[in-house]
Prior knowledge:
Strand content of chain B: under 5%
Structural class of chain A: alpha+beta
Helix content of chain A: 55-70%
Distance between the termini of chain A: 23 Å
Mean pLDDT of chain A: 88
Number of helices of chain B: 5
Largest sheet of chain A: 5 strands, antiparallel
Helix content of chain B: over 70%
Structural class of chain B: mainly alpha
Order of helices and strands of chain B: HHHHH
Number of strands of chain B: 0
Mean pLDDT of chain B: 88
Low-confidence stretches of chain B: none
Distance between the termini of chain B: 24 Å
Oligomer: heterodimer
Shape of chain B: elongated
Largest sheet of chain B: none
Amino acid sequence: MAVLSMQKIRLFVDRTIAHRLLEEVQKLETVEFTEVPFEKVSTEESHATSFEFNRLSSRLDALVIFLSKFKPSTQNLRTILEGENPFVNESSLESIPRTFDYRKKIEYLENLETSLNQLRTKYKELTDERALLLPWKSLPLSLHTSLESKYTKTILLSIPEEVLGELDVLLDEKGVTYHIEEYPEKKYVLTFLNEDEASTQKVLHSLSLEALTLPRRRGTPAEEIERIDRAQKHIEEEERETIKKIEAELVHLPELKTMADITHWKKERHTLLTNSGNVFNNISILEGWCPKRNLKALEQSVTHCSRFSAIEPIDPEPGETPPVEIRNHPTISPFESVTRLYGLPGKDDLDPTIFLSVFFFVFFGLSLTDVGYGILLTLITGSLLLFYRVKKGTRLLIQLLFLGGIAAVAMGALFGGYLGVDLESLPQALQGLQVFNPVENPLPVLYLSLILGVLQIMFGLTLKIVREIKNKNTFNGILDQLPWLLLFVSFIWFILEKLALIPQTNGLATGGILFSALFIVLSQGRHEKGIIKKASKGVLSLYDIVGYFSDILSYSRILALGLATSALAFAVNLIAFLLKDMIPVVGGVLMVVVLIVGHLFNLAINILGAFIHSARLQFVEFFGKFITGSGRTFNPFTRKTRFIELIK
Amino acid sequence: MEITLGLALVFAGAALASVLGFIGSAIGMGFAGEAATAAVGEKPELFGKALLLQALPGSQGIYGLVGAFLILNFAGLLGGGEEAVLISTWEGLQFLMVGIPIGFAGLVSGIFQGRVSAGGIATIAKDESLTARAMIFAAMVETWAIFGFLISFILLTLIGA
């Protein structure tokens, strides 16, 4: 129902059964461990085991990633909502490590991976060689023939076009006797006399030309290209075979994924243990945070494991703040996604979830205000929840939209919103439900929005008082908020009187306003030093009225968002019917298409708008009144799932 | 339909309401789109989230579209009635005024919302879990387009009142 209160604890662990005990703690998901201020357990032996665990864990991780690459990718609604990880229950977690010979599987798959990599490297080498040889295909020399003879030397060159003429000129200048033959891709064979070598090299150097070397192979380039082609074909075949073997192992992917996660958990337990305090023989000390409500369960499972283990509550280190976690009733918990979006409140704050839930529900409904869209949203999200095992974070959000759909139906009935259809053409019963007509008379809805705003802001101020009372700061809590609450009440009184909704009291309301204003001036400057500073701070704080005023006006967006939904729905219908009237024969078909696409589009953008703006009203206008801090999210020691989903 | 100055002013009002919103959204979505293409080039898996952020500055155009429809509808120009619509010059001027809040608020807020969205896309490129917060920042700017729409609508209901 609230922010969970946390207890710092110290855990004494009997090292002989440490793994079993920590596994229980992992399952309970209720302790966040912190650094221990003692000498660490770390020994050479524990380092060696750490190394083993790390190695096994990373081998398994690498294999899972490698093998997953061969899984045909299936992108559909199911994989988006549920993810591609297998669902594993506790009994498979027990049985898989015993029945699945993962060490053998690791060896086998790693060998396959190595040979696949070797094949691919070889193939790439051959491709490179082939590319080198290709321009020389018509060279009538076998590649191992020496290019040097008694009188001449021959080199292979790649000569850019613009340099070719220059080369001729320079060689002629030096009086070199030479011969050049041209091959495709600007490749040339240059033959010159041995005695001219020095001057030829100089010329080549000045033009930054370098002799090319070809792979040392037996036959002519043409023969070797053919040989490479044959070899590559052979490699391709082997690669296909290897891939087939790997793909045959895909059936074991779920088991491998399970093993990878189990090993990871083991590794984490081991790391935790090596960092624990070493105080007595065979007893380790761990410290951490645990929600108070779970202490009993933790103690039971710890002492159940070994009578040499125990937990003890301790005081936190000076300056240490506990992590924050919130817990709410299942009907309210979907609204936690709004709270979490903002970030968790500070440790001394109230959990705003239950307080914002009603407002969010109403605001979301008012921003959609359409029975048709509400029903659609409820049906879509309801069937997603019913037919899919949606991941936790997404599930809360979908549940929230489901509730939002219900709100939209209720508000839509009150406001007469039915997919933009004119209410007068609908059954009498539905017309009877309508209370507001935002299109013809928007002002009452504007007032309604502003009244909701005033209510939420006053509620926020009241919650601030509650928060201060909880933190034993009652005096300041009341003095800070009460004058403002009184001012709000007096203003409401004043307005009601002006509207003649309540009996006249001859200026009592005005008196109330003046009294509250004086109260504000007197109370808000009390922390300042000196009478002048106190007074000026008090008077200046009256300026906060502007802030409250703009906060309240901000709620008028509720009216505008609701109007935008119905106006756009109306526009969609209008376009659709115009099409039907204007275009003969196919007009009817076009009308249906426009209606479906248009309304779905309108639904989508308005859900987005309703969600964002309802959330914003909570964050900016509401939270600002009573939430002061922000908390570090409680991050308990758990079995972190990376490749599997646990069924609990 | 008799062509009067009043009628022309109604047209001008509808044109103003819609086209200014369209321009605002086009520029805003353009900014956000540039950031999105860059982010998706590095991390293709961000496509959906980047698209969502890019879509946010599109609402100004939609408000403009809706505004133009409402102006034409309140002036009695839609709905296929055959009877002549008579709109005086003063009435027409009122319809033109209606287009101003929604049009200009949409134009300016669309552009700046686009900039915030572009920044938001850069944020989610660094940390995907911040998507929702980036969206809230962009939605803050949209407030002014919503208020523009609201005032235009209230003015519209007051015409002839």
